[in-house]
């Protein structure tokens, strides 16, 4: 039996719920009528929430999910698909889910996809880019692009191939089949499959376990795992973290202090580790 939790609303949005519980932020795509398909409004709201999560000191782990028991996310909302992207309320076509994908990968905190039903098309890519995926037994995974007139040749393909291998990634994209949660587990696409009623309990337990560990260590591991795959952008993130750590040292402080005190810095007192 699932445990009842008091999730507190962090901020009100139109298309998403953004809630907090015990160090965990939960972002829920709240368009169950359309199997939680996203519009430009949905994705810009997720971006805004992720920015908040990055800045907020009280948030340690982020959970991304969909409302209801049918879908995590069914990708871009076909009702607003126009020439050049998904058309927002301003009439401009956009593919701004790409910004969300990049944010999920670069936010220096673990992101868990809590997949509670269909993760399809651009919705599948969203779970792929999360650090971890916990799925309910009724979850179904797949890409539809070549069948419905789209594709994601970015993280949705290359990172997918890193996870499931080149042959399987090509199968997923070329054949546009749907895969059960069990099949997804067997191909390493998800971390764990649990009954629907215990999905949130399991996700919260994983989050709480990670929260017992060093946030900085988790941050560096995430940056390192990304850096291997993300080229110069990945190295920039890892290097940024190295700079942050360097700024925490007395040696770095000495440089700044010496400049302000108009003297030569004295580096001699700092250890040169072998
Ligand atoms: C999810 C599916 C399998 C669920 O089937 P089920 O349970 O039988 O429900 P339905 O009766 O089909 O659906 C219920 C209602 O929900 C609507 N709906 C479902 N999905 C969407 C959707 N994606 N957009 C709009 N509406 C949706 C149905 O129409 C139905 O409404 P009513 O009751 O009025 O008929 C099944 O629904 C399904 O297969 N859905 C479509 C899944 C799909 O093909 N998704 C891909 C969409 N495209 C992308 O995601 C492209 C991504 C992309 O464009 C991209 C590429 C590269 C870089 C960026 C992007 C980007 O997105 O920005």
Automatic annotation (TrEMBL):
The pathway noted for it is: Quinol/quinone metabolism; menaquinone biosynthesis; Quinol/quinone metabolism; 1,4-dihydroxy-2-naphthoate biosynthesis; 1,4-dihydroxy-2-naphthoate from chorismate: step 6/7
Residues that, per the record, bind hydrogencarbonate: 143-145
Q: Which cofactor does it need?
A: hydrogencarbonate
Recorded GO terms, molecular function? 1,4-dihydroxy-2-naphthoyl-CoA synthase activity
Q: Which reaction does it catalyse?
A: 2-succinylbenzoyl-CoA + H(+) = 1,4-dihydroxy-2-naphthoyl-CoA + H2O
Quote the EC number: 4.1.3.36
Looking at the keywords, is Lyase present? yes
* Pfam families associated with the record: ECH_1
Keywords of this protein's UniProt record, alphabetized? Answer: Lyase, Menaquinone biosynthesis
- GO BP annotations, alphabetical order: menaquinone biosynthetic process
Gene3D superfamilies per record:
2-enoyl-CoA Hydratase, Chain A, domain 1, Lyase 2-enoyl-coa Hydratase, Chain A, domain 2
* Site (Important for catalysis) location in chain: 86, 247
Provide a GO CC annotation, any one.
cytosol
| Superkingdom of origin organism | Bacteria
Binding positions (substrate): 35, 86, 118-122, 144, 150, 247, 262
InterPro entries found in the cross-reference section: ClpP/crotonase-like_dom_sf (IPR029045), DHNA-CoA_synthase_MenB (IPR010198), Enoyl-CoA_hyd/isom_CS (IPR018376), Enoyl-CoA_hydra/iso (IPR001753), Enoyl-CoA_hydra_C (IPR014748)
NCBIfam families, A to Z: menB, PRK07396.1
Purpose of the protein: Converts o-succinylbenzoyl-CoA (OSB-CoA) to 1,4-dihydroxy-2-naphthoyl-CoA (DHNA-CoA).
What protein name does the entry list?
1,4-dihydroxy-2-naphthoyl-CoA synthase
């Amino acid at each position: 039996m699932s445990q009842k939790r008091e999730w507190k609303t962090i901020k009100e949005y139109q298309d998403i719920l953004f809630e907090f519980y015990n160090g965990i932020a939960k972002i829920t795509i709240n368009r169950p009528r359309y199997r939680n398909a996203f519009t430009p409004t949905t994705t810009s709201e997720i971006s805004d929430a992720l920015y908040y999560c990055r800045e907020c000191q009280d948030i340690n782990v982020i959970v991304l999910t969909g409302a209801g028991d049918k879908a995590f996310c069914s990708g871009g909302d076909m009702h607003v698909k126009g020439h050049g992207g998904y058309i927002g309320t301003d009439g401009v076509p956009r593919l701004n889910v790409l910004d969300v994908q990049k944010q999920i990968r670069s936010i220096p905190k673990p992101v868990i996809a809590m997949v509670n039903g269909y993760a399809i098309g651009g919705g599948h890519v969203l779970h792929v880019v999360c650090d971890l995926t916990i799925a309910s037994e009724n979850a179904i995974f797949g890409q539809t692009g070549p069948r419905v007139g789209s594709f994601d040749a970015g993280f949705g393909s290359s990172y997918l191939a890193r996870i499931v291998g080149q042959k399987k990634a090509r199968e997923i994209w070329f054949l546009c089949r749907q895969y059960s949660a069990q099949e997804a587990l067997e191909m390493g696409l998800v971390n764990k499959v649990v009954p629907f009623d215990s999905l949130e309990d399991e996700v919260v337990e994983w989050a709480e376990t990670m929260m017992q560990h060093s946030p900085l260590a988790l941050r560096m591991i995430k940056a390192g795992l990304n850096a291997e795959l993300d080229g110069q952008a990945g190295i920039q993130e890892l290097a940024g973290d190295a700079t942050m750590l360097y700024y925490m040292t007395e040696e770095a402080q000495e440089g700044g202090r010496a400049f302000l005190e108009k003297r030569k810095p004295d580096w001699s007192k700092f250890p040169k580790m072998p």
